[in-house]
Amino acid sequence: MKDISTAKRQQSVPTTRTRVHSPSQWTTLHAGELDILQANALRNIPWLVHSFSTRLGGQSELSGKRILNLGFTDWDNRKAVEKNRAKLVSALDAREMALAPLRQFHSDLIYFFEKPAAEPPRADASITRAPGILLAVQTADCVPILLVDTKQRAIAAIHAGWRGTLKRIVMKTIGRMQMMLDSRPKDLLAALGPAIGSCCYEVGPEVAQAFAGQFAAARDWFAGPFDQLAAGDTPNPLQWLTMVPPGHQPPAPRVNLDLRAANRWQLLEAGVLPRNIFASELCTSCRTDLLFSFRKEGNVSGRLMAVIGISEDS
Predict the structure, then answer these.
(1) pLDDT reported for residue 14
(2) Which runs of consecutive H residues, i.e. helices, occur in 133-278?
């Protein structure tokens, strides 16, 4: 398959491109009514197909607007989601490729696709070197991460929420690529798509304590009284020990977590070169005009999808 900016691609779906984020790192592809985000470093690989979706366009309807919901949610129609997925694949000129989503559950399980699966496997990351398979992960605040090994022609898609990050799913995925696909971390490119930013991702003592117990560098990823929470120095839940009248106990302090920074650290620890890491700065919670955020929108949030595949024409 050719790069989606070729004449063939332009004939199938009219597209235009505008740059977002850092001008040298990211591009927005306008494909019909869809807007698709792409990392330029990955766009420049002729045998690679990839994208991070947005909410614009699509067949789903929410609050009187057409949106591109790519996950099977309770509020949406299954047929609409299937049409949305077909539109995304078509916009990438990847109609002949098999979309390979996962049944995600905030785990550290990694699935190796040798061929398309009959049903989505239970996992939160996937890897392959087989052409024609479009790896996919769904997010609505968590960090979508796409990896490509430019030497071995191997790829991975990762869904990293705070639980997956705590379980080191990024490092484990890279380790699996090393074992099964002979990948070397220095040959990997990594693209981190839109996710909830530290500006909006407030978490409680249990998350701070869990990260403090797993990562020596955890303090760098939190804003707020991290040391206090990590040490367990929070208000006593037994009010009779504090002589504070009922209803007047101060709430437990909170901190803000930078999930992208935590996953960038894992990439670096695994041996990925700093110059090969490309992170979107878009916050899903701040930009619900463009993206989906479960934290902001609740049960009526849609799902974004990050996809990556090896062209069969390469």
Answers:
(1) 43
(2) 162-166, 169-181, 205-214, 226-230, 259-270
Q: For tokens 């990351």, what's the residue?
A: 125
Q: Which residue has the tokens 């797993």?
A: 214
Please tell me whether residues 135 and 40 are part of one structural domain.
yes
Q: What is the pLDDT of residue 60?
A: 97
Angle at which helix 259-270 crosses helix 169-181, to 10 degrees, equals 30
- What is the structure's pLDDT at 284? 98
Distance of alpha carbon 69 from alpha carbon 48, whole angstroms: 24
One domain, residues 188 and 53:
yes
Q: Is residue 165 located within the same domain as residue 272?
A: yes
DSSP line for 32-77: TTEEEEEEHHHHT-TTEEEEEE-SEEEEEEETTEEE---S--TTS-
Segments of the chain scoring below 50 in pLDDT? 1-20
Q: What is the pTM of this model?
A: 0.89
**Are residues 251 and 262 located together in one domain of the fold?**
no
- Amino acid identity, position 54: T
